[in-house]
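Model it.
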Amino acid sequence: MRKFVVTIAFASLSFVSFGQIVSLNSNETAKLKSAIKNDTETQKLYQGFEKSALIYLEDQPNPIDTIRTEGLLKGNPKKVKTQQALADMNKMFTLALAYRITGDQKYLNKCVEFLSAWAKNNKPNGDPIDDTNLDPAVEAYDLIKTDIPATAKKEIEKWLSETAWAEINSKRMKPGRGTAINNWNAHRLKEVGEIGYALNNQELVKWAIDNLKSHININLYADGTSLDFKERDAMHYHIYDLEPMLKLAIMIDRANSTNFYTYESPKESSIKKSVEWLIPYIKGEKQHEEYVNTKVKFDRDRAKNNEPGFAPGSMFKPGLALPVLRLSVYFDPTQKDLLQKVSGGQHNWQNVLEELKHKQ
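Modeled.
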């Protein structure tokens, strides 16, 4: 039974097909095919992608019953086992995209095999830090959903839906818990919204949008800082909080809804302000020593475990902000030069796919 009660009668809402909001849509896929055919640089990058796709055709799914990464130190056997299983995520996405590019049934069949194996074996536990790893699987489903055989599609959709509802109904979501308002919640909202758009489920999408508004109001501050930065004293966690919010904001914008990049909460906080607060640190105009005053024991435990970047006093490195820059440039093209500078002008397959989603 669902514990979440919807206060609006969704029966009264007109049905809207979201299409490919999470992944590349038909027009974007067509542009990608054209670039592969006509652009020398894209052709070279595609050759590497195609090579990987062919290799994955020979691989077997390695699903894990419960994803375990959150709260575990590097080297923990449960974390290692999970990381090995999560190699399937990129394989699924690669196979799905290869099918969309080539139309070759062998890629579709193999992707469905991977998705079905995870749908049968993986049990959602409502932990957003674990579930955020499922992004490539959701994107893979979104790419091929119109061509998945009915029985397999029903099973995969059930798994994704249960994952979203486990997040909504999780004890970690209860009022008064830090995990209901910190970076955990940002990842929770992104995962629920992503699955909602992939499944064309307006109920999940509405929940994600409504709660994104409250998250921006509670988690982000008018001066651009965030709850996570203040708790962890680390740009790392400010970025880790903004990244899922930006991903969700892009999906919402692609669905022709509210621009949540510039949206301001009643407290005058916004994703835009929190991204712009980072810019001087990315440019090197300001410096920050990470984790010096963190309030979280796990940060100190990772430092003791000699995990790179977690030692108190480690200087923030601008490259850590690349995940935010790659996403925020969707809303603010003026950041392209900074993105180029921080990335060293590197152009890879991921860049090609991201740029296809940029506003023209």
